[in-house]
Amino acid sequence: MATLTRQDLNFGQVVADILCEFLEVAIHLILYVREVYPSGIFQKRKKYNVPVQMSCHPELNQYIQDTLSCVKPLIEKNEAEKVVVVIMDKEHHPVERFVFEISQPPLLSISSETLLSHVEQLLRAVILKISVCDAVLDTNPPGCTFTVLVHTREAATRNMEKVQVIKDFPWIVADEQEVYMEEAKLIPLKTMTSDILKMQLYVEEKTQKT
Amino acid sequence: MDMDMDDLYLDNIDEFVNDQNKIVTYKWLSLTLGVHVNTAKQMLYHYLEQKRRESSGTPLHATYLVSGKFVENGGTCHKVSVVREDKLEAVKAKMDVTISVHVYSVQRAELKDSSPLYSTDYDAVKENLKNSNKYSAIRCAAAVPMPSVELRAQEVAVVPPVEKEIHKPRLNENTSATSKPSAKQPAGIMGMFASKNASKSQESSKEVKTEQKDNSSLVETSKTKPASKANPMSNFFGKPAQKKVDEKRNKSIKEETDGDSAASSTASVKLSQPSPKSEFAIKEEQSKVSSALKVESKDTRNKSKRPEVVDSDDEKMENQQKKRRRIKKPQPDSSDDEVVPDSPPVPTKQTPSPKKQVKREPVSHQESSDVKRRKRRRVLKSHTFVDEDGSFVTEKGYVSESYSESEEEPEPKSQAKDSSSLKQSFGKREEEKKEKSQKKTSATNKSTKQPSIMGFFQKK
């Protein structure tokens, strides 16, 4: 079948769609598993043919969706290097960072008919790994909040500021203290490699959480 | 039994659980190691015992499958459930007779909900779909997949005995509109399909039977039109009715259309004549359905979904005059509300008036929001709905949340409560103002009965 290059924006959009859907599910699941929000707001829904927990709180959902719609154009152009979900304690010091490292191969080939179901299987495995990650992580202190950071390659953010994807949803350059964590332990969770997408998920965890 | 279990398996399980941080269910273990499920269960049990005896290293968590006889509401039932270890004794105590208890899974993480248990088996089972009971202890000699030829032969056999009943519904079509469509559903459907004598339509009849709502909608068409026209009619009728149906029904209706298109090739002469008439009839049906939707929106707010559908069909059955009467009724009432806000009759009107306040909004909006509301109800049980009509939808979400929040119940229970909380919330919300700023009403609503949304943040 066809071999597409990065210039073929349609395919880039497909990959960005898949990835943003996945990130939405993953963020909700992280919030559920790490107990950032009370479990009462979560509801079982189906994704990739398995049950996942998604929140029902409209503002939270809207926030996550807005965040990801801003990230999507970066992924389409392959400018997003990492998407990080940072969990911070009451003093806004990060205690955990879930890092999704994303890379897309320059030459995408949709040679296999079962490509998408294969990708679905891999994403399912990542979801499963997030569900059991609390075995390897210490419990968080109460009263945590979360935020999403995006590390871009080169100077993509300058273009982003010019084109505000969503009004009233500005992105700002993150503070040093949110980006870097001192005394961090690195815990790898899952790596997935497929024809269209490579993703690595690991957690940076603060050694002393309280 | 002991021969199967040397210590190698213990190391295997140890590697899966501790090194790879996997959830090891007995089903996954049996498929991975190629052993009978009972052996797998024993292996897990031994592993757990050994690790607990050592009491070193990381703590392990286990889930158990308990099955037994359970007395509920005066009737006994056989209950099978997967429980966490800490709840095991409690569940066993509740059962009358505990028939079996065995280890379901072993993992390092303490699972908050059961979703990962399903995910962990998913791929392994999918790969072994054809021989999924290779290692299973459940056997049934008669359970073999049927070849498709036998499938059709079976359906043909089902149709003839029902033909006798067709005569009855046909007589009734001409006499009076019935008020019990449900009693005639199966006969009416079979009548429609029997008239075709096409095997494909019989296949689709199977799908129709599985959905009771489909039956009610199709029966109505059979009553208004002769049975021979009913088949193409039902498909078209199915389309406007799809507004209020979920995806499952859509599929079955579409499958009917597929069945019919195939049948039409074999019985093309029959179709060509009724088709112009049926097209005209379709438009009538659609207009009837849309007016029925409008009418029902006013009356069926607190009912569950099924009666709603039957109501609309009932309204269709009545002659148009009655329908017009119903539509007109609310208008004089609503105008009364506007003219006389403080007069003495207001208290008596208050209960009907809140219902009709919504009617003041443009009817199309009402219809769409009602359609949405119907979807929302179902959706609320298992779906979010953020991108629709702002606040109304938001309230739904809020209500279900706040209930489960205040009840502090675990996830599955909160979902069961949703359906009841929905009805209450509908009633209560309508007693609020006539506002467009429904968000405000939701806030006040919540402060009167539940801890508000701020409760979320305070809890943190």
TrEMBL record, chain A:
UniProt-listed Pfam families: HORMA
Domain of life: Eukaryota
UniProt keyword terms in alphabetical order: DNA damage, Nucleus
GO cellular component: nucleus; zeta DNA polymerase complex
Gene Ontology terms: biological process: DNA damage response
Main location group: nucleus
HORMA domain boundaries: 13-203
PANTHER family recorded: MITOTIC SPINDLE ASSEMBLY CHECKPOINT PROTEIN MAD2, MITOTIC SPINDLE ASSEMBLY CHECKPOINT PROTEIN MAD2B
The protein, known as: Mitotic spindle assembly checkpoint protein MAD2B
